[in-house]
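Example 9 (inverse folding). The structure is encoded as follows.
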């Protein structure tokens, strides 16, 4: 009798709401009393305490105009009038209501945007993939010698197949030796001569639905097959092999490469959907970090990294300078001397900032001509500075004036993104960021490097130099770990899924990674829009795996 009867009593949620409301009103009345007296007399009243506020609130409910009676221990001349008190209280309530509505609306909108992006990404990754010719039209053809009616047409036309079967069925005997072939779904013409009347036969049992044999359409020249690889089947067949992939629609391929990786993964992309569609799956295998200096993603958890890190070693400073200048480096051989001078300046500045503990933004100040001789002094006097670095920097600064000016302008252009507050913050790491950066490979984690796709970085590089330097640093770190291992390769491998790499982070070492990365435990998936884009970024090397 009592089963299914709802429980009686006050719900816990309602009880907690009432308690919170009472506490809030108590705090609000106490603050309003003090603020009203402060505005009226310039001082906080005596004996207006938080513990006495509940009794004062009870009295004000019955006598809203008798403010001194609500606070009997407080001198009446130190309190304000009831008009100022209630005006402040109502104003504070209105402000709190407006703020509450704004916060609720903002949180609801943020959750809706995240849910929509997650749903779109999951639909993109988990959508069933059809055969290559399904989108371009399929023609169902029967196998040679198949029984009549064994091949059905497209869905929605079963009657055509059954009509063809009934029309061709009785003529199997006389037509067997005529050599006439029957087309799928066609009705054979009546043969000359008398047609035998077949004996009535019982209705056959319904056969299972036939499976059409699809004839694939010709392969497109802009397919997403790796360069030099044989024609592959559907994306769902077998593991994905590393290589270079061209095509406008690369989302499914990049997501599959990320999800199939067995070890740590480095991902570059300009598509927030790739991050939102794969981060949850990768989080089950290890830590997930995001380097997003332009704030393209909807996440507060971003990794910070300074290009100065590790530049106390002269070789690291040289590699870092080359990576930072790669997006803006001129391609003409006539400008090679200027590019080399810019690389020398940036290498010495990075080394000076690293040995002296300066932040990365100090390098931008030096590149803009502020305290240009300060790094020379640091390199000449600091005990950790590499020998000869001070003379090399001083020679570059006092050399050909026009070449020096162009080199400084080139360096300042590469570091121009530091004028943004978000980018400066992304280059100012804390200790937790440094630990996460150093351990994500060993922990099997995932690092997403996200940036805006830029087609002409030599005029407006944005954050591309920073992203390129980070990717190159991860690659060099992986190579170093592979070289120190007994097998000469990383195990498990560090998978590099470089989506839109030519427009996000054109690392100078990409041709070597495509050719030799798999042998070192650095399998590389380089995804780009076209071969022309690849030749524009790496004109002197071919991307062949």
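The amino acid assigned to each position is listed next.
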């Amino acid at each position: 009798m009592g089963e299914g009867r709802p429980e009686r009593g006050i719900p816990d949620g309602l009880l907690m709401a009432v308690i919170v409301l009472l506490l809030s009103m108590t705090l609000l009345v106490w603050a309003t009393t003090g603020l009203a007296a402060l505005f009226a007399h310039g001082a906080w009243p005596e004996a207006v305490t938080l513990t006495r506020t509940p009794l004062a609130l009870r009295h004000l409910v019955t006598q809203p105009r008798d403010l001194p009676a609500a606070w009997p221990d407080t001198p009446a001349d130190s309190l304000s009038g009831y008009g100022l008190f209630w005006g402040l209280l109502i104003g504070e309530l209105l402000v709190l209501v407006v703020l509450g509505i704004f916060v609720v609306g903002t949180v609801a909108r943020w959750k809706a945007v995240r849910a929509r992006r997650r749903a779109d990404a999951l639909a993109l990754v988990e959508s069933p993939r059809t055969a290559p010719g399904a989108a371009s039209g399929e023609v169902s053809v029967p196998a040679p010698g198949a029984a009549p009616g064994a091949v059905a047409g497209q869905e929605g036309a079963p009657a055509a197949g059954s009509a063809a079967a009934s029309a061709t069925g009785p003529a199997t005997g006389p037509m067997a030796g005529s050599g006439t072939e029957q087309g799928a779904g066609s009705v054979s013409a009546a043969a000359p001569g008398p047609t035998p009347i077949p004996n009535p036969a019982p209705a056959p049992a319904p056969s299972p639905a036939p499976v059409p044999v699809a004839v694939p359409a010709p392969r497109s020249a802009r397919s997403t097959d790796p360069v030099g690889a044989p024609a592959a089947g559907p994306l769902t067949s077998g593991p994905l092999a590393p290589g270079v992939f061209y095509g406008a629609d690369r989302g499914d391929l990049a997501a599959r490469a990320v999800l199939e990786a067995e070890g740590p993964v480095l991902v570059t992309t300009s598509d927030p959907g790739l991050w939102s569609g794969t981060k949850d799956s990768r989080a089950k295998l290890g830590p997930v970090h995001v380097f997003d200096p332009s704030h393209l993603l909807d996440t507060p958890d971003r990794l910070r990294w300074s290009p100065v890190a590790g530049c106390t070693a002269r070789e690291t400073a040289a590699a870092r300078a080359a990576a930072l200048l790669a997006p803006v480096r001129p391609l003409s051989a006539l400008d090679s001397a200027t590019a080399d001078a810019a690389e020398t300046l940036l290498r010495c500045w990075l080394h000076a900032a690293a040995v002296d503990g300066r932040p990365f933004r100090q390098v931008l100040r030096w590149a803009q001509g502020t305290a240009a001789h300060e790094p020379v002094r640091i390199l000449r006097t600091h005990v950790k500075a590499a020998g000869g670095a001070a003379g090399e920097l001083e020679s570059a600064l006092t050399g050909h004036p026009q070449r020096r000016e162009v080199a400084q302008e080139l360096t300042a252009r590469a570091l121009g993104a530091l004028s943004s507050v978000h980018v400066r913050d992304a280059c100012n790491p804390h200790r937790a960021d440094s630990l996460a950066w150093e351990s994500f490979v060993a922990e099997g984690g995932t690092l997403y490097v996200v940036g805006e796709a830029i087609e002409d970085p030599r005029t407006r590089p944005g954050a591309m130099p920073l992203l390129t330097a980070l990717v190159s640093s991860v690659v060099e770190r992986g190579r170093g770990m592979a070289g120190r291992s007994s097998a000469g390769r990383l195990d498990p491998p560090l998978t590099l899924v470089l989506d839109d790499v030519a427009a996000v982070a054109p690392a100078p070492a990409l041709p070597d990674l495509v050719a030799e990365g798999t042998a070192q435990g650095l399998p590389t998936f380089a995804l780009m829009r076209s071969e022309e884009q690849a030749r524009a970024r790496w004109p002197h090397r071919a991307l062949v795996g």
